[in-house]
């Protein structure tokens, strides 16, 4: 049998060469690691943190926008920066999907961070990893928890507006549909409730909460009247209101206390405390800020682990808005 060993060695070498070639052509999704850039771009976390600190100091709402950007990326074919791709004459991306058009923002902040990261470590750090780091810093800069971000994602070379329309829960979602949408992604009802707590910061457009403040019975009357001042029954679709009018720019657990007082801004917010499966968890978070912070951080890591399907063409984009 010994005369076959050289042949086996040659076959093994060829197999390794073929695998290496496939990894160049297709993403070989390795395990994410908090140390992924420890040698190749050790300063990336500092660059992202500094840029996010400037962005949030200039406009606190931008922190909430970056958190949302991360969610809207990960929920559509995994955390692959597909949401950042601009439309072209031959390509329709996700930016104008129903849940994203005139709503998702912060693209320029990611562009600015990418420029700084590229100057420090050209072609090394993916846009998807920058968004993951930026969302962690956004939460922390607004007073919320921090966590170790798993890194090593690649950027998709494609995007899907239809997938964005199908996968992103809308403001009229029921509790059952929210639980189901998150379950499809491997996220529990507890994860979903914790992640919904991101609505302790940020603003929503009148278009998305008008129906609730004028027609729904499970709403605090004083709260509804206050919201109606800036959201008329017709017109003013783009007028903004804070999700949490108690501490609108502080990442805390006030969102859950608001739900218990029937002061949820969106229908989908109040659904979390409306006699359904998440009521008990809302009660716990409303009385235990530490539990919410811990669960939120864990759920963000879990959501950040959503990966594109095997074989999805990927790369490290040099410009987050277009493929290389």
UniProtKB/TrEMBL annotation:
<keyword id="KW-0106">Calcium</keyword>
<feature type="disulfide bond">
    <location>
        <begin position="74"/>
        <end position="79"/>
    </location>
</feature>
<keyword id="KW-0479">Metal-binding</keyword>
<feature type="binding site">
    <location>
        <position position="200"/>
    </location>
    <ligand>
        <name>Ca(2+) 2</name>
    </ligand>
</feature>
<feature type="binding site">
    <location>
        <position position="82"/>
    </location>
    <ligand>
        <name>Ca(2+) 1</name>
    </ligand>
</feature>
<keyword id="KW-0325">Glycoprotein</keyword>
<comment type="similarity">
    <text>Belongs to the peroxidase family. Classical plant (class III) peroxidase subfamily.</text>
</comment>
<keyword id="KW-0964">Secreted</keyword>
<dbReference type="GO" id="GO:0046872">
    <property type="term" value="F:metal ion binding"/>
</dbReference>
<keyword id="KW-0560">Oxidoreductase</keyword>
<dbReference type="InterPro" id="IPR019794">
    <property type="entry name" value="Peroxidases_AS"/>
</dbReference>
<feature type="binding site">
    <location>
        <position position="76"/>
    </location>
    <ligand>
        <name>Ca(2+) 1</name>
    </ligand>
</feature>
<dbReference type="GO" id="GO:0140825">
    <property type="term" value="F:lactoperoxidase activity"/>
</dbReference>
<feature type="active site" description="Proton acceptor">
    <location>
        <position position="72"/>
    </location>
</feature>
<feature type="binding site">
    <location>
        <position position="94"/>
    </location>
    <ligand>
        <name>Ca(2+) 1</name>
    </ligand>
</feature>
<keyword id="KW-1015">Disulfide bond</keyword>
<feature type="disulfide bond">
    <location>
        <begin position="41"/>
        <end position="121"/>
    </location>
</feature>
<comment type="function">
    <text>Removal of H(2)O(2), oxidation of toxic reductants, biosynthesis and degradation of lignin, suberization, auxin catabolism, response to environmental stresses such as wounding, pathogen attack and oxidative stress.</text>
</comment>
<comment type="similarity">
    <text>Belongs to the peroxidase family. Ascorbate peroxidase subfamily.</text>
</comment>
<dbReference type="InterPro" id="IPR000823">
    <property type="entry name" value="Peroxidase_pln"/>
</dbReference>
<dbReference type="InterPro" id="IPR002016">
    <property type="entry name" value="Haem_peroxidase"/>
</dbReference>
<feature type="binding site">
    <location>
        <position position="244"/>
    </location>
    <ligand>
        <name>Ca(2+) 2</name>
    </ligand>
</feature>
<keyword id="KW-0408">Iron</keyword>
<keyword id="KW-0349">Heme</keyword>
<feature type="signal peptide">
    <location>
        <begin position="1"/>
        <end position="30"/>
    </location>
</feature>
<dbReference type="InterPro" id="IPR033905">
    <property type="entry name" value="Secretory_peroxidase"/>
</dbReference>
<feature type="disulfide bond">
    <location>
        <begin position="206"/>
        <end position="231"/>
    </location>
</feature>
<feature type="site" description="Transition state stabilizer">
    <location>
        <position position="68"/>
    </location>
</feature>
<dbReference type="GO" id="GO:0005576">
    <property type="term" value="C:extracellular region"/>
</dbReference>
<keyword id="KW-0575">Peroxidase</keyword>
<keyword id="KW-0376">Hydrogen peroxide</keyword>
<dbReference type="GO" id="GO:0006979">
    <property type="term" value="P:response to oxidative stress"/>
</dbReference>
<feature type="disulfide bond">
    <location>
        <begin position="127"/>
        <end position="320"/>
    </location>
</feature>
<feature type="binding site">
    <location>
        <position position="247"/>
    </location>
    <ligand>
        <name>Ca(2+) 2</name>
    </ligand>
</feature>
<dbReference type="InterPro" id="IPR019793">
    <property type="entry name" value="Peroxidases_heam-ligand_BS"/>
</dbReference>
<keyword id="KW-0732">Signal</keyword>
<feature type="binding site">
    <location>
        <position position="73"/>
    </location>
    <ligand>
        <name>Ca(2+) 1</name>
    </ligand>
</feature>
<protein>
    <recommendedName>
        <fullName>Peroxidase</fullName>
        <ecNumber>1.11.1.7</ecNumber>
    </recommendedName>
</protein>
<dbReference type="GO" id="GO:0020037">
    <property type="term" value="F:heme binding"/>
</dbReference>
<feature type="binding site">
    <location>
        <position position="78"/>
    </location>
    <ligand>
        <name>Ca(2+) 1</name>
    </ligand>
</feature>
<dbReference type="Pfam" id="PF00141">
    <property type="entry name" value="peroxidase"/>
</dbReference>
<dbReference type="InterPro" id="IPR010255">
    <property type="entry name" value="Haem_peroxidase_sf"/>
</dbReference>
């Amino acid at each position: 049998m010994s005369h076959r060993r050289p042949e086996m060695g040659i076959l093994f070498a060829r197999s390794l060469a073929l695998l290496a070639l496939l990894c160049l052509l297709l993403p070989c999704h390795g395990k994410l690691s908090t140390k992924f850039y420890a040698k190749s771009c050790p300063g990336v976390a500092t660059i992202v943190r500094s840029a996010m600190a400037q962005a949030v100091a200039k406009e606190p709402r931008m922190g909430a926008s970056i958190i949302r950007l991360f969610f809207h990326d990960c929920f559509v074919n995994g955390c692959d920066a597909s949401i950042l791709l601009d439309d072209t004459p031959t390509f329709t991306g996700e930016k104008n999907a129903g849940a994203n058009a005139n709503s998702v923002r912060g693209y320029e902040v990611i562009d600015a961070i990418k420029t700084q990261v590229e100057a420090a470590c050209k072609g090394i750090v993916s846009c998807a990893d920058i968004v993951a780091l930026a969302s962690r810093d956004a939460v922390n800069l607004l007073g919320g928890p921090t966590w170790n971000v798993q890194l090593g994602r690649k950027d998709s070379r494609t995007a899907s507006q239809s997938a964005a329309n199908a996968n992103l829960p809308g403001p009229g979602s029921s509790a059952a549909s929210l639980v189901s949408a998150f379950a499809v992604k491997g996220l529990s009802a507890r994860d979903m409730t914790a992640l919904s707590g991101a609505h302790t910061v940020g603003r929503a457009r009148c278009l998305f909460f008008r129906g609730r403040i004028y027609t729904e019975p499970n709403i605090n009357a004083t709260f509804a009247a206050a919201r109606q001042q800036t959201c008329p029954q017709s017109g003013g679709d783009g007028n903004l209101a804070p999700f949490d009018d108690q501490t609108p720019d502080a990442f805390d657990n006030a969102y859950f206390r608001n739900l218990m007082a029937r002061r949820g801004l969106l229908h989908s917010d109040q659904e979390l405390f409306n006699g359904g499966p998440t009521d008990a968890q809302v009660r716990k978070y409303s009385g235990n800020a530490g539990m919410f912070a811990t669960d939120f951080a864990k759920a963000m890591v879990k959501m950040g682990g959503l990966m594109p399907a095997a074989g999805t063409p990927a790369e490290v984009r040099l410009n987050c808005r277009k493929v290389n």
